[in-house]
Amino acid sequence: MQLSVRSQLDTLKDEFISTVSHELRTPLTSIRGALGLLASGTIGELDPRAMNLLRIATTNTDRLIRLINDILDLERMESGRAPLQIRRCSLRDLCDQAIETMTPMAEDHAVHLELVPFSEGKTPDSLFFDGDSDRILQVLTNLLSNAIKFSPAASTVRIHIDATSDSLLLKVVDEGRGIPADKLDSIFDRFQQVEHADARQRGGTGLGLSICRSIVQQHSGAIWAQRNLIKGTTMFVMLPRTARATDIVPLPPSLPQVEGAILICDDDANIRTVVSGHLTRQGYKVIEASSGEEALTLASEQPIEAILLDLYMPGLSGWETLQRLRDNPNTADIPVVVLSVLSSNLQNHLSGDAQGWVQKPFNENLLFAELGRVLHHGDGPANVLLVEDDDDLASVLMANFAGASVHIDHTSTRQQAIRHCVGRRPDLVILDITLPDGDGFSFVEWLRQQPPLRSMPIVVYSGHELSDVEMSKLRLGPTEFLIKAKVQPEEVETLVRSMVHRLRSHPTQLVTADPAA
User: Fold this and answer.
1) Is 506 helix (H, G, I), strand (E, B) or coil?
2) Which residues contact 378 (CB under 8 A, 6 or more apart)?
3) Buried residues in 146-161 as b, exposed as e (16+ CB within 10 A)
4) Where in the sequence is the domain holding 307, given as residue range(s)?
5) In this structure, how many other beta carbons lie within 10 angstroms of the beta carbon of residue 20?
6) If you placed Cys at 98, which of 44, 140, 346, 380 could pair as Cys (CB 3.0 to 4.6 Å)?
7) pLDDT class for 210, splitting at 50, 70, 90?
8) Number of C-alpha atoms within 13 angstroms, CB side, residue 112?
């Protein structure tokens, strides 16, 4: 009898969490997306007082989103509904990824991040373990985020990693104010802060370390904190490991080839290195030029897909380089994206020959979006079908595509989506799985039964996390899974642009997916 009651309670709890996920994340995503559009100046400039109110609304919306995401993450882990995806992992690679992810935040706080990789005599081959790479990365970024927030400007946060025959030890060391001795254990409890004012001043939810502890315990590891002798705090994470003779440093994955290359022209070697790194990870072939003269020579000698061009360079300026590119029949049609410290609002006044504009310091997502826009292939705009029953969120998503080479059609029910696909085959579908007359699973199953549609690219934009079984039921062609509130509408637009460009550049991808997958 008790088991039956417990089973019923577990079912009710699961249904409640699922409802909360959808009913809270969907409107929050709409609110955050609308605020983002206002802040971007898309619908006009705001006066300083309005901008300040907008900043307050955005900051507190982000805080609420983080709180809800953390509560749902913690509940899923502690209820066993977030099983680990165990695979062989490199701790060194995960630390590199965590530092790359948190570097923008560190730079905003004037904090330096440093990896201290090995003890004397250790090699990278000794730093492998079996675990869920996404979850361990979540632990690392959470610990770095805390360390950065509580570190003074011009200080350094260091990650130390080491290994023994049966365990890995990771330390995150900061130079902040330190944690009082009586708080070293309680900071891992839910909604605990070192001081009550920290949540308001630092923007935390009080759940980050609870989530870290849950993840580490799922890996049969341990996490604890210790005050440093002079200043700051050290967070320790211990993970069990089993050494294997086959553990080697993996080779980087082979990158998809493109017909031409992206030419980066900037006299600043650091800028070229950063941009080249971002583009290479996205599969682009990259060529660098340090001057306008060199860029002109390279562009005339080989196929170039697009040029990223700095305006202010010694010698031949970006303005002159752009004009000479347009005057040469061999290079006149190459799309050019300007990288400039000037605002894009000046683009039409200063240079009508550039197809795109990214302001420095740039955000890599905006760079990819602008590059994908100028590289758009195909006849006319891509046709994207948005299947979303929340009209407010749909409006925000569609507003983010304004000016893009993408045409959005919106349907709010499963039957409307089916009728649309019968009448006009979309290039890609953005799909919410909660619909008033069915769900996304049954819609995908219908697509799978239609030969022209069973390799359809899909972006699943869901209000709650999906299991591996659920994701397998939603895969057709190239498929991406995004979580509302965790991924904002402008990021959906960036991803869709990127997918459209990839699919039109490599159309064979549309028919390579296994429809039974």
Assistant:
1) coil
2) 504
3) bbbbbbeeebebbbbb
4) 261-374
5) 16
6) 140
7) confident
8) 6
Q: Are residues 443 and 488 in the same domain?
A: yes
Average pLDDT on 97-106 reads: 89
For residue 222, the number of C-alpha atoms closer than 13 Å in the C-beta half-sphere is 5
* CATH number, domain with residue 102: 3.30.565.10
Q: Packing angle between helix 364-374 and helix 269-281, nearest 10 degrees?
A: 70
Q: What are phi and psi of 428, to 5 degrees?
A: -160, 150
Quick check: helix, strand or coil at residue 477? Answer: coil
Q: How far apart are CA 237 and CA 246, in angstroms?
A: 25
Statement to judge: residues 313 and 355 lie in one domain: yes
Query: 270: domain CATH number?
Result: 3.40.50.2300
Which residue type is seen at 469? V
pLDDT digits (tens, 9 = 90+) for 310-321: 887 888 888 888
Q: Verify that 93 and 221 share a domain, yes or no.
A: yes
Cα–Cα distance, 507 to 517 (Å, whole number): 20
Query: Which of 27, 46, 78 represents a domain boundary (last residue)?
Result: 78
Whether 363 is in a domain gets the answer: yes
For the record, the structure tokens of 368 come out as 């990819």
pTM summary value: 0.51
Where do we find the tokens 């409006």?
A: 395
Helices 2-40 and 48-78: angle between axes, nearest 10 degrees: 160
DSSP, residue by residue, 77-139: HHTT-S----EEEEHHHHHHHHHHHHHHHHHHTT-EEEEE---TT--GGG-EEEE-HHHHHHH
- Compute the half-sphere exposure of residue 179: CA atoms within 13 Å on the CB side of its CA: 23
How far is 370 from 172, CA to CA, in rounded Å?
36
Cβ atoms < 10 Å from Cβ of 296: 19
User: 């960036």: which residue's tokens?
Assistant: 494
Q: For residues 454 and 441, what is the distance between their CA atoms, to the nearest angstrom? A: 13
**Which residue matches tokens 């591996």?**
468
**Assigned token pair, 467:** 């299991």
95 and 228 assigned to the same domain: yes
Same domain, 210 and 143: yes
Q: Quick one: angle between helices 489-505 and 2-40, nearest 10?
A: 80
Residues 381-416 pLDDT 10s: 788 999 998 888 888 888 888 766 788 999 998 888
232 and 105 within one domain:
yes
Structure tokens at 224: 């604890």
516 lies in some domain: no
Structure tokens that stand for 190 in this block: 């839910």
Q: Considering the domain boundaries, does residue 246 fall inside one?
A: no
User: Do residues 341 and 359 lie in contact, with contact meaning Cβ atoms separated by under 8 Å?
Assistant: yes
Q: What domain count does the chain have? A: 4
Q: Are residues 269 and 353 in the same domain?
A: yes
Domain boundary among 194, 209, 240: 240
DSSP three-state, residue 5? helix
For residue 364, the SS3 value is helix
Asked if residue 250 belongs to a domain, the reply is no
